[in-house]
Amino acid sequence: MYLACSRAACAESVRQECLTRHTQLAGDIPSIVPLVTDTAGTPRVLVEVRIDGQLVTSRISGQAVQVDPGKHAITFSTDDGVFATREVFVAQGERNHPLHVVLHAAAPAAVPAKLEVGRKVEAPPKADTKTPKAEGKKGNEGLAMADDDGLSTPPRAPAPAPPRAAGPLDPHPGLEFEDDEPPREHRSPAGGLVLGALGLAGVGGFAVLTSWGRADNRMLATCSPSCPTASVQHVRRLYWAADASLGAGLVSLALSSWLLAGSF
User: 3-state SS of the chain?
Assistant: First the structure.
């Protein structure tokens, strides 16, 4: 309504009044910023977001979505279906409320065995693991066996395994050790710390710019309805800069978390 009466065709006094009212109303409308990443911290874009069952966007772009004050059920879905549901309570004037969810990779489905039609697939024969018995002699390993001359022969002990060749750095030659686990690849935490600092700076810039915008917005109420157009545009630019600072800060924090998680 206020946006319609702020057109150039309206009278100057009416247009200034409508612009002021529209700016004040826009500052009171709450909004959320949906963000989706996978388990590796990579942002996902092709995600549908529904608020109370209504589709609000089918592509995550980092921009804020305006909502009514109160409690809402927000669902995130892809072509495979809904993968996350969040219930949030948004107060009046709460702008750019971040809402971050993680998209987990689906487990691969088992591929059924391909059967040829009209033929019966038989299982391969099992290998015979039994040791053939020597002809002319009966007995088990570890028991005395009788030779052809009738004398009893004590059981033979199994031959010991040959020791492993000692390397130049082997502290215990002749002993068997399991192979050491290959070293894990670690990422340098420097990049994660830098992105974390940038993310905190972006969130801090959002708070400062929002505070300035609200202060200047309250000052416009004193000159309403004849406030200068430059003052109104200044307030709008502060709010836009605050939104951009928050979006950049959240993306930097997400990337910083992913880098720091791989460095420990």
Answer: CCCHHHCCCCCHHHHHHHHHHHHHHHHHCCEEEEEEEECCCCECCCCEEEECCEEEECCCCCCCEECCCEEEEEEEEECCEEEEEEEEEECCCCCCEEEEEEECCCCCCCCCCCCCCCCCCCCCCCCCCCCCCCCCCCCCCCCCEECCCCCEECCCCCCCCCCCCCCCCCCCCCCCCCCCCCCCCCCCHHHHHHHHHHHHHHHHHHHHHHHHHHHHHHHHHHHCCCCCHHHHHHHHHHHHHHHHHHHHHHHHHHHHHHHHHHCC
